[in-house]
Amino acid sequence: MPNTTNTALITGASRGLGLALARSLAAAGWNLVLTARGAAELERVAAELGATALPGDVTDPEHVRRLARAAPELNLLVNNASDLGVTPLPPLAGYPLEAFRVLLETNVTAPLALIQATLPALRAAGGSIVNVTSDAATGAYEGWGGYGATKAALEQLSNVLAAEEPDVRVWWVDPGEMNTRMLADAVGREEAAGAADPAKVAAALSGLVGSRPTSGRVSLQ
């Protein structure tokens, strides 16, 4: 009999939203290929969920190729891994340009590279792509210009990709503020503690993946 198990590839899967989504999809019976830079954390998650762990840096072209080879049949790609950039968050007038180039590489170029590498499998499966973005892509928040600019670029990349790939669902998803290490690094632990639980956001994201609406921007909060 043909294999009917759905397979998802999730980046940034060792903590925060990536970890919460991996748990949600595993509970629904998905086969998971997970990646993150922290090998020890990722291996623990993979052991918990019975998933495949491939630690590495998504800006590394060889790692991207390794991820694509690990999922020759793929139903869902989740580009969740991203970097906050310089902290404390600086104004654009003083943003270090080399740091901004690195941020673009992580938050924009790396997701596109992984999309390109996995598109043949996603086309064959009539699959889906989730690009995790932010309200910083559309709002003028002081200090968030560097990070927000990369997320705005990711949103437009997703928008055009959706027009070019009508057989693949493409959603650029704004999860809202979540109680994660990244938010704590930006605003402090006390303020971050009042944000949404990533598990609740992941449940909404799992519902989106299951219902497969038309491609577009989605806000989960």
TrEMBL record:
Q: What name appears for this protein in its UniProt entry?
A: NADP-dependent 3-hydroxy acid dehydrogenase YdfG
Q: Which PANTHER family match?
A: DEHYDROGENASE/REDUCTASE SDR FAMILY MEMBER 7B, DEHYDROGENASE_REDUCTASE SDR FAMILY MEMBER 7B
Q: Provide the alphabetized UniProt keywords.
A: Oxidoreductase
User: Is this entry keyworded Iron?
Assistant: no
Q: Which family does it belong to?
A: Belongs to the short-chain dehydrogenases/reductases (SDR) family.
- What InterPro entries does this protein's entry cite? NAD(P)-bd_dom_sf, Sc_DH/Rdtase_CS, SDR_fam
Q: Keyword NAD, does the record have it?
A: no
| Entry's Gene Ontology molecular function annotations | oxidoreductase activity
An example Gene Ontology CC term for this record: membrane
